[in-house]
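Quick one, C-alpha cells below. Sequence please?
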C-alpha cells in the first residue's frame, strides 16, 4: 500500500512538472521569435504561457515599478535616451510589459529610429489586442484574461476609463476583478477581468 501511494505521488509530481515544462517551452519558443524580430505571433499564447512560468512569477515587480516611475520622470523631462534605457531595463525583467514597449517605441521615434519604434508599437498592440479578444468583459464568465494586475490598469488607461470601484468576484471556477469605471464619454460601465492566472501565481509565489 505504501509503495502504491509513493508511486502515485511520484506520478503526480512528474505530471505537474511536465505541465509546467510545457508552459516554459511554448513561452520560450514564441518569445524568442518576438525578440528575434518577428511580430506576427500568437500574443494570447505568448501571454498565457509566459504568465505561468517561474520567471514570470518571480519577475521583481517592485523593481519594475521603481524603474517605471523613473522612466516617466525622464519622459516628462524630455530625456529620450534615458527613457529608452529605462524601458529596455523593464523589458529585460518582463518582456511582456506593454508600458515599456509603448515608452520604448515613443523614445525610439524621438531618437529617429522609426523601424525600432514601429516594432515595439506592434508588440504593444499585439499584446493589447490579445487581451481585448480574450473575452467581452461583460460578465465574469466572459472576462478579459489578464496575467497580472498591471495589464488591467493599462487597458483602462488606453480606453480612457477612470476607476470608481474594484471588487473580486467569482463565477464557478473563474475569479474576476470587477472594475466599475467611468468611460471616456462620462458613462458608468462594468468591466470584468479574468484573474485566474494572477491568483495561480499568487499561490505559487507563497509556496
Amino acid at each position: 500500500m505504501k509503495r502504491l501511494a509513493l508511486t502515485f505521488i511520484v506520478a503526480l509530481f512528474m505530471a505537474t512538472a511536465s505541465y509546467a515544462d510545457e508552459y516554459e517551452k511554448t513561452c520560450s519558443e514564441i518569445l524568442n521569435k518576438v525578440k528575434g524580430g518577428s511580430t506576427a505571433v500568437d500574443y494570447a499564447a505568448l501571454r498565457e504561457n509566459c504568465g505561468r512560468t517561474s520567471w514570470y512569477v518571480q519577475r521583481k515587480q517592485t523593481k519594475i515599478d521603481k524603474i517605471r516611475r523613473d522612466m516617466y520622470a525622464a519622459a516628462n523631462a524630455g530625456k529620450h535616451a534615458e527613457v529608452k534605457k529605462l524601458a529596455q531595463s523593464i523589458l529585460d525583467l518582463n518582456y511582456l510589459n506593454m508600458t515599456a514597449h509603448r515608452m520604448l517605441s515613443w523614445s525610439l521615434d524621438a531618437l529617429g529610429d522609426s523601424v525600432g519604434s514601429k516594432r515595439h508599437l506592434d508588440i504593444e498592440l499585439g499584446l493589447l489586442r490579445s487581451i481585448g479578444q480574450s473575452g467581452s468583459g461583460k460578465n465574469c464568465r466572459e472576462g478579459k484574461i489578464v496575467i497580472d494586475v498591471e495589464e488591467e490598469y493599462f487597458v483602462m488607461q488606453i480606453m480612457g476609463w477612470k476607476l470608481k470601484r474594484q471588487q473580486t468576484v467569482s463565477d464557478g471556477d473563474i475569479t474576476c476583478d470587477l472594475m466599475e469605471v467611468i468611460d471616456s464619454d462620462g458613462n458608468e460601465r462594468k468591466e470584468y477581468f479574468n484573474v485566474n492566472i494572477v491568483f495561480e501565481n499568487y499561490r505559487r509565489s507563497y509556496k
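The two ends are 29 Å apart (CA to CA). The CA atoms of residues 64 and 149 lie 13 Å apart.
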